[in-house]
From TrEMBL:
This is Heat stress transcription factor A-6b-like. Residues 21-116 form the 26S proteasome non-ATPase regulatory subunit 3 N-terminal TPR repeats domain. InterPro entries: CSN3, TPR_PSMD3_N. One of its GO terms (biological process) is ubiquitin-dependent protein catabolic process. Pfam families: TPR_PSMD3_N. GO terms for cellular component: proteasome regulatory particle, lid subcomplex. The lineage of its organism: Eukaryota, Viridiplantae, Streptophyta, Embryophyta, Tracheophyta.
Length: 121
């Protein structure tokens, strides 16, 4: 019988690593047609680490991905990564950092319904 801790380690390293590989592949291709796919991959990448309880490990990667999405004017990627970063900060009770990020992040006119529901204030 496989213990739940072993399953979590397998999930973290197998799915987390493969998701990060997919994220890197989409970033290297730099195609605007992959922006929607990349936003989904960011979500699943963060979800893998959230389920294993190791969100702090990917915070710097999420910040770097947000910076890249901003430079590429990828609005969906920016919104998705902003929500993931805020979720990451709030998970670890880093309220001041979350507020600084939220206050400096741009607000977009055309939100997707899914992302707009996260930003209701």
């Amino acid at each position: 019988m496989i213990s739940s801790a072993l399953v979590m380690v397998m999930v973290k390293y197998d799915i987390g690593v493969s998701t990060m590989g997919a994220v890197q592949d989409t970033e290297e291709s730099n195609r605007r047609t992959l922006d929607v796919l990349a936003a989904r991959l960011y979500f699943y990448y963060s979800l893998c680490y959230e389920l294993t309880g190791s969100l702090a490990e990917i915070r710097s990667n999420l910040l770097a991905l947000h910076r890249i999405a901003t430079l590429r004017h990828d609005e969906l990627g920016q919104e998705t990564l902003l929500n993931l970063l805020l979720r990451n900060f709030l998970h670890y009770n880093l309220y001041d950092q979350a507020e600084k990020l939220r206050s400096k992040a741009p607000r977009f006119e055309a939100h997707s319904n899914q992302q707009a529901s996260h930003n209701l204030s």
